[in-house]
Give the backbone structure.
Amino acid sequence: MRVAVIQQANTDDIQANLAHSEALVREAAAAGAELVMLQELHCSLYFCQTEATDQFDLAETIPGPSSERLGKLARELNIVLVGSLFEKRATGLYHNTAVVLERDGSLAGIYRKMHIPDDPGFYEKFYFTPGDATFNSGASGFTPIDTSVGRLGILVCWDQWYPEAARLMALAGAELLLYPTAIGWAPTDPDDEKSRQLDAWITIQRAHAVANGLPVLVANRTGFEAAPQANDGDGIQFWGNSFIAGPQGEFLAQADADTQQVLIADVDMQRSEAVRRMWPYLRDRRIDAYGDITRRYRD
């Protein structure tokens, strides 16, 4: 299956961002992609650099204007399209939510980000409630979404650091792991620290591919976004480097740090079967000995 991830720089013009995303999705579809994924919170600037209540005005319901626009695009292009929206679930209740639109434009499902960071420049706990269950279902938040191109294990940004999240998606039958992302450096970080951070980010996600025998798709944003106010910090230089990896962590395609681009790769959907036969990690799991994994810390 041909897949694509979109690496994009954003501005404070939401309609311009959406139009640019649409153009890049069309480019991916024209190249034969059947599954296309956009980056985290692709409609706007990354507003979580500061805590400001007026930013909640960016949130919208699902279904709503952006999900319906993405659905129309998916139907027109006959693709499965993964977007990432600031969801208003109810007054005072908001989520960081990935949406999956089917080839016919219908909403196949949503995933609400489960792990919510709270760090300088990434004040997401102010805005987002952790996901609790899948859309219109009582199932666990770590539940794949069934589509015409396969069972998609959608996870979002900070989720990508947690092996438990990837494993639970794999155990629930995910055929691919997808990570819409918005991550970058503080411009004041020294170069050696920047290199370590980027390498760790790439390595952990490739490791999820290896440990679960699944392809991994990662879409990160690029470009510099200034802090909203001078006292909010130095801004974020998003580091791009979106990539697509196979079920042994092998790179199938990788973007650079600074270029807005459509990254395309052909994923062999049968390879996971072959890899899991050679490396039967699921068979050899010691599920009888993992009880402490549900504890915060083993004192």
